[in-house]
Design goal:
This protein has 308 residues and is an alpha/beta fold. It has one domain: TIM Barrel (Alpha-Beta Barrel), CATH 3.20.20. It is built from eleven helices and eight strands. Helix 8 runs parallel beside helix 9. The termini are far apart.
Length: 308
């Protein structure tokens, strides 16, 4: 495979030096995060934090401008009967819907994220991926979620994957780049660790588990391995990298487990929307239902919440 020239400051890491993952240890530690109990005021604080970290997402072939406008209205007005709620971090759409989302969000402090690079397969020539990225950014995308070429990675073509990420990062301009590893296709935690290191050295602002189109998507063990890679990269370089688990996180209880893991692995500095996101379409509704339960003692019917 051909490669593209890299900016002078970007350097391919020596992946042979990436530490192997203790899979048994990771699974045991991830399981322990699910035993933690958070209640009362701390639970409400966690639920508010989760809402503020959500990338409210619609990525379907049947997406229309009207559906995107409706999603943006939900992002702005999560639940008007519950004052004091934070807004979500971003609305995530296909490149053709970026302009519509940008217009619908207006002056509200909510980012527009766009998938790109032939999402979800990544099976397109590099020049097409770069052009799609530039189009999304030109239309107003604040963030780009790209997919890596998993076939190349699994063949050991690490240089190609690295150079491709670096080229997309350059095409992003001022937009932040989230690099989707599609961990469900990588097969092992060792590969997840290696792909995380590769993406961060290539210029990723965030690393992200999944497209949401492949199962398994986000899991606690996979996310823990990626958080540990971020921690070690920070110790090595002093550069903070964001994390975005996506796919399969549909209820507040599970999302809280992810927050506990984030806190105990990376610390308080990462517990903001600037450095941590949830990629989700249905999570927001469950969080709102839990907040209503905390306030009133009863669950509100799902009919009171808009369908994503």
């Amino acid at each position: 495979m051909s490669v593209v020239p890299l900016p002078q400051e970007v350097r391919m890491p020596d992946l042979s030096r990436v530490a192997l993952v203790d899979e048994v240890g990771v699974n045991e530690r991830a399981a322990r995060f699910q035993t933690r109990s958070i209640k009362n005021e701390s639970k409400v604080e966690a639920l508010h934090m989760i809402l503020s970290m959500i990338d409210l997402t619609t990525l379907e072939g049947q997406d229309t401008p009207g559906k995107v406008r409706q999603l943006c209205q939900k992002a702005i007005h999560l639940h008007d009967a519950m004052p004091g709620l934070p807004h979500v971090a971003a609305v995530c759409v296909y490149p053709t819907m970026v302009g519509e989302a940008k217009k619908a969000l207006g002056n509200h402090d909510i980012n527009v994220a766009s998938v790109a690079t032939a999402f979800p397969s990544g099976m397109a020539p590099l020049q097409i991926k770069l052009e799609e990225t530039r189009i999304a950014v030109d239309d107003g995308a604040d963030e780009i979620d790209m997919v890596i070429s998993r076939g190349a990675f699994l063949q050991g073509e690490y240089r190609y994957v690295f150079d491709e990420i670096a080229a997309v990062k350059e095409a992003c301009g001022k937009a932040h780049l989230k690099v989707i590893l599609e961990t469900g296709e990588l097969g092992t935690l060792d590969r997840v660790r290696r792909a995380s290191v590769l993406a961060m050295h290539a210029g990723a602002d965030f690393i992200k588990t999944s497209t949401g189109k492949i199962q398994p998507a986000a899991t606690l063990p996979v996310t823990l391995v990626m958080l540990q890679a971020i921690r070690d990269f920070y110790y090595e370089t002093g550069r903070m990298i964001g994390m975005k688990p996506a796919g399969g996180i549909s209820n507040a209880k599970l999302a809280i487990h992810y927050l506990v893991m984030l806190r105990e692995t990376l610390g308080n500095a990462w517990m903001t929307p600037e450095w941590y996101r949830f990629g989700a379409s249905s999570l927001a509704n469950d969080v709102l239902m839990q907040l209503q339960k905390q306030a009133s003692g009863v669950y509100q019917s799902a009919d009171y919440f808009s369908k994503d």
